[in-house]
């Protein structure tokens, strides 16, 4: 093999109560990527426990949320037979490789991670070690499959950069050993040619409306934690509820602008136009060409009809699938077994490269 085999990996935490932002920002993109790529999609349940139990809800809620996220994958159209769908904790090699990466990554790299600062807040001394080190586990999630591409949003780009740094340092530190074992691919590191075991994973950047905002406040991201259910469209909402929430979405009194620059400083209008663009696989400029100058009394019903047409079939499956726990669990078990075979192939090589004795 002269190049790394193309492979897409992505994971999402089992937070429960999935909404339109989760669908447009991640799951729908995964469905599209599976058409022309080999894909591994993971419910990262080990990441879910990095904060206090009160934050992630405890064992029963974690199991329920893991099944719900899996149901969302399947309802949206991910093919769990052609591709791999599993929950992270089933494959022990993720945690094993994370420990190796704990010894590769530098403290200074992790200290720069903005998500730790945001989640730990001012009381960092009481934050868990897992919350601090979880970017190393994220790197292991990706690299235990030697994945070449990862779809990322803006909030994860820094972690993918860390994944690349870890891969680069591993390749550099062990270049001679990798070459000795015949496990490497010749790559350039600056002016130096080295034998690389891990790829430098590339980001797959999202398209329109990857960041969906609240229907009640266009300056805030759509969130399950918002006390108002009208702020979000849940993936379990029925047709009437979807339509009602779109029609009640906050807007200003002006008509839609005649050009895209007119959306500046109009966050609610910009959000609804972005949602329409994403649901139709177009861009905001295209939506403005069709609806520019129209009142929201015209645009909102059109958006509501579109959202119902796109989301109602998914919502119907989302209400049905979680009740079939035996089926969901069988998907995760099968996916975990397939993922473990790939992960163990990588880990056997990593153990040899590092110098661990094994049978």
Structure report:
The protein is mainly α and 359 residues long. Helices cover 52% and strands 9% of the residues. It contains 15 helices and seven strands. It has helices spanning 20-33, 45-48, 53-56, 59-76, 93-104, 107-111, 114-120, 129-143, 157-173, 175-181, 239-247, 267-279, 284-291, 296-320, 325-354; strands at residues 8-12, 39-43, 84-87, 149-152, 185-189, 192-196, 202-205. The protein has a three-stranded parallel β-sheet with strand order 1-2-3. The protein is globular and about 70 Å long. 41% of the residues are buried. The model has no long low-confidence stretch (mean pLDDT 91).
Please tell me what the overall shape is: globular
The H-and-E topology, N to C, reads as EHEHHHEHHHHEHHEEEHHHHH
Give the strand content.
Answer: 5-15%
> What class, by secondary structure content?
mainly alpha
Query: How many β-strand stretches?
Result: 7
Average of pLDDT = 91
Rg, nearest Å? 22 Å
Q: Would you identify the regions where 5 or more consecutive residues have pLDDT less than 50?
A: none
What strand order characterises the main sheet? 1-2-3
Count of separate DSSP helical elements: 15
Helix content: 40-55%
**Distance N to C terminus:** 25 Å
Characterize the main sheet.
3 strands, parallel
């Amino acid at each position: 093999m002269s190049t790394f085999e193309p492979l897409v990996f992505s994971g999402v935490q089992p937070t429960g109560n999935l909404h339109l932002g989760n669908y447009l920002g991640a799951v729908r993109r995964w469905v599209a990527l599976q058409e022309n790529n080999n894909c591994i999609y993971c419910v990262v349940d080990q990441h879910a426990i990095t904060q206090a139990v009160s934050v992630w809800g405890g064992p029963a809620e974690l199991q329920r949320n893991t099944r719900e996220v899996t149901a969302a994958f399947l309802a949206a159209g991910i093919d769990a037979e052609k591709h791999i769908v599993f929950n992270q904790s089933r494959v022990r090699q993720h945690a094993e490789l994370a420990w190796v990466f704990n010894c590769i990554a530098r403290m200074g790299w992790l200290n720069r991670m903005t998500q730790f600062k945001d989640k730990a807040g001012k009381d960092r001394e009481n934050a868990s070690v897992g919350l601090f080190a979880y970017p190393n586990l994220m790197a292991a999630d990706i690299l235990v499959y030697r994945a070449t591409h990862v779809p990322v949003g803006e909030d994860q780009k820094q972690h993918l950069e860390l994944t690349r740094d870890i891969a680069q340092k591993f390749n550099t530190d062990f270049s001679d050993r990798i070459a000795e074992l015949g496990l490497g691919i010749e790559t350039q590191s600056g002016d130096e040619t080295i034998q690389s075991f891990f790829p430098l994973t590339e980001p797959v950047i999202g398209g329109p409306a990857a960041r969906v905002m609240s229907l009640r406040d266009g300056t805030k991201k759509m969130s399950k934690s918002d006390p108002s259910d009208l702020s979000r469209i849940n993936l379990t909402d029925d047709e009437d509820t979807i339509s009602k929430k779109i029609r009640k979405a906050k807007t200003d009194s002006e008509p839609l602008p005649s050009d895209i620059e007119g959306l500046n400083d109009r966050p609610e209008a910009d959000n609804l136009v972005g949602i329409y663009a994403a649901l139709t696989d177009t861009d905001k400029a295209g939506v403005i060409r069709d609806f520019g100058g129209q009142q929201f009394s015209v645009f909102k019903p059109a958006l509501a009809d579109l959202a119902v047409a796109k989301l109602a079939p998914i919502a119907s499956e989302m209400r049905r699938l979680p009740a079939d726990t035996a089926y969901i669990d069988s998907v995760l078990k099968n996916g975990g077994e397939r993922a473990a075979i790939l992960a163990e192939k990588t880990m056997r090589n990593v153990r040899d490269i590092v110098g661990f004795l094994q049978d």
